[in-house]
Amino acid sequence: MEQDLYEVRRIGPEETETIKALFLSVFTAEPWKDDWSDQEQLNAYLHDLTGHSNSLTYGLYENGKLTGISMGNIRHWYTGTEYYIDEFCIRPDRQGRGLGTLFLKEIEKAIKDLGLTQLFLQTESTVPAYDFYRKNGFNELNEHVSFAKRI
Q1: Is the residue at 108 inside a domain?
Q2: Phi-psi category of 14—alpha, beta or left, where left has phi over 0 and alpha has psi -120 to 50?
Q3: 145 assigned to some structural domain
Q4: Which residue ranges of the chain lie beneath pLDDT 50?
């Protein structure tokens, strides 16, 4: 993989349509099969992730084309300021080629330059992303529990 074909840069709401296309290509397919048919809900979600002062979104560009996105926000925590990743993905036709690992490494460099000290994310243990994050040095927080309540 020739690294000079790739560029990682910070992006924002001005890239919403491109982000949306990539996001839908990943998360409406296997293994997630999310139903994002409600365009108003989708637009609001993407705005939540990209349109606020603490939002932090990175794009991985391959030969000028958006190939990966990482959307989240900066959170201040007692252990330091962290990048909380809500969504991370690589175009389905480019997965399995090391681009996700390259992207994560570049994000680590970028957030370190911003003074951030930690990456935090959540995923399901039954999807391929789980093994990907473990392979890339993320530690499972055994004491951490996520709760949800449908009302």
Answers
A1: yes
A2: alpha
A3: no
A4: none
